[in-house]
Amino acid sequence: MAIWQYTFQILLKESVEALSSNLTFKRTNEGFDDEPFWNFKPINRSYFIEVSNIFQKAKSWCDKIDLYGNQESNCFEVLYDNRNNVTSASFRIDFRSDY
Q: Which long-range contacts link 1-4 to residues 24+ away (Cβ below 8 Å)?
């Protein structure tokens, strides 16, 4: 990822409220692990289908990622497991874009 792009992790408010006091947040070179927040309350990947009204769904490099937008620019990614439950969700903004 380039310095002109920034990624935001998407979390459910209720999982943050319930878990934030019990979790120790560690910053690593791998980034922020948001999976515990998604394990708190299983959410099916179809929860994010309305994102396709904003960003066109595209083919991802991975079978377990729903990609909305452009992999190299602005995009919304939903990672999911074998049961189609979300394990991570993020939104990346490319600040080179003319808004």
A: 1/92, 4/94, 4/95, 4/96
